[in-house]
Design brief:
The protein is an alpha+beta fold and about 80 residues long. About 45% of the residues lie in helices and about 15% in strands. A 4-stranded antiparallel beta sheet has the order 1-4-2-3.
Length: about 80
């Protein structure tokens, strides 16, 4: 199911991170707002879940404090999303 190209969360993350380019990141809120500007807070959990799947697939990297997370399943706190280095 996560491989569905019509998954709006997946598409938003991939589109926004690609637009930023290498070495730049986006906030998860950016992806959530691209999907639902008025109710983006409700989408944040879906963004995190999809980000973990994309990180594991090597399509994006989840960053904490400017460094890639070691375990995408267990990281906590504020994070950003970007292209792999």
């Amino acid at each position: 199911m996560s491989e569905d190209p019509k998954n709006p969360v997946r598409e938003a993350i991939l589109t926004l991170t690609a637009a930023k380019g290498a070495g730049r990141t986006i906030a998860p809120e950016d992806a959530a707002k691209a999907i639902s500007p008025e109710h983006f807070v409700r989408v944040l959990k879906d963004v995190r879940g999809e980000a973990v799947r994309l990180h594991k697939a090597g399509l994006i990297t989840i960053y904490r404090k400017g460094k890639p997370v070691e375990d995408p399943e267990t990281f906590k706190g504020v994070y950003r999303l970007g292209l792999p280095v």
